[in-house]
Amino acid sequence: MFKATFWWNFxxxxxxxxxxxxxxxxxxxxxxxxETVMHLQELSDELAVKNGELMVSQNELEEFKKKIDGEETTxxxxxxxxxxxxVMKKYAENFSKSxxxxxxxxxxxxxxxQVQNFTLDANQQDFLDMSAFNENRTKYNSIALDSVKKHAxxxxxxxxxxAKALAEIEADLNKQKADLDKLVKAAETxxxxxxxxxxxxxxxxxxxxxxQMASNIKARQQLAKNYTRVAEKPNGSIQFIxxxxxxxxxxxxxxxxxxxxxxxxxYSRSETDMKNGKKKGSIQVAQVTGLHTSECIVTSxxxxxxxxxxxxxxxxxxxxxxxxxxxxxxxDNNGISDVEQLVKILEANGxxxxxxxxxxxxxxxxxxxxDFLIIGKRPDESAREEERMTFTNFTKAAYEFNTPQISLExxxxxxxxxxxxxxxxxxxxxxxxxxxxxxxxxxxxxxxxYMEDRGNTNNNNx
Length: 462
Prior knowledge:
By secondary structure, the protein is α+β, with helices and mostly antiparallel strands. The protein has helices at 2-69, 77-91, 102-189, 192-228, 339-348, 385-401, 408-415; strands at residues 236-242, 247-250, 263-267, 279-288, 294-300, 312-314, 322-326, 352-358, 361-364, 372-375, 405-407. It is built from 7 helices and 11 strands. α5 links the parallel β7 and β8 (352-358).
């Protein structure tokens, strides 16, 4: 009995232990399953996030590929990377490593394009300026052509008159020669008194012949001058004028190769012939400020006929004109030759000196392309033969090439320079303008920006 009860109790205890163990095992399994399910859910959520990020990255990559290689690109990333390396090697070889990128190349090209656009705008403005200049030049060329035709007609008429007068002179000379021959024959059989009278008549005839030859030479000079020196067109015009400061702005600048300190005479806007026109005043370049602008100082002015915007400026030297110089050059009347100073002044104003006379020496010579022969003091009979011969060589060449002659005084007047005036030092020549004073005050209508308060007597000059 006791034995049966023992085994029954033992069986119950074993059953209890097994039940408890199964319960614990089920509980642990359930907890682990719940954690596993939760972990799987977290992994699923994380995978979904990663998939979303991957899709975004994939879309961004596709957009980036389109921006790099175009909308229709089918290239993979490796191909694009290889293409980038080729592009950098071809177009950005000179760039630093840190700047070898498409953005750096684009920035460089944009800057280059800006520079090109700026240059294009500047060239376009220059083209417009040049077009306006060519239009004005065509107008002035037409005026000059009309003047040439007019002077050519005058020359043809004068030439016929001269030829007729020359024929009459030659006939008269032949008659005089025949009369002299008769006198010589008569002298062979005449008395000493008769011979003396004949010699006196002969001397007088020779003097008449010299006078006639001098008159012929003067006539030839005048004909050559009338034929070759036609109406001169202006070089530019006054843009602005400041009467109070004695300053003016002109439409010539660095693009026109205007020299610093170049002098110009000023003429009315209605004047068409700068050679024979009435001069209103003179100016001198003080500063070149642009392609077609320069600031000038007014060196002389006429208060009764003031300089105004639109007035024309002219210099016989400006524009690569060629010159030769003959005779004694004395610009300040001190008896000392100033030919070297004149050469420097011409060159400082943009001229070219082909040749000149330095006392009895000839430095280079007058060329066929020489525009003017400047005549100083002519050598008289007291001068040395070499000096007279040098002067004759220049004037003879001028006749052969039909080169106009201009006196030193006329040249300086047309340049707007007086012999007593100092201007800016240029090429070693002191050509500084005289300080502006009220004596050369310019009144009249000027730009409103440059009007002067005439009642202010304490106005300081600039």
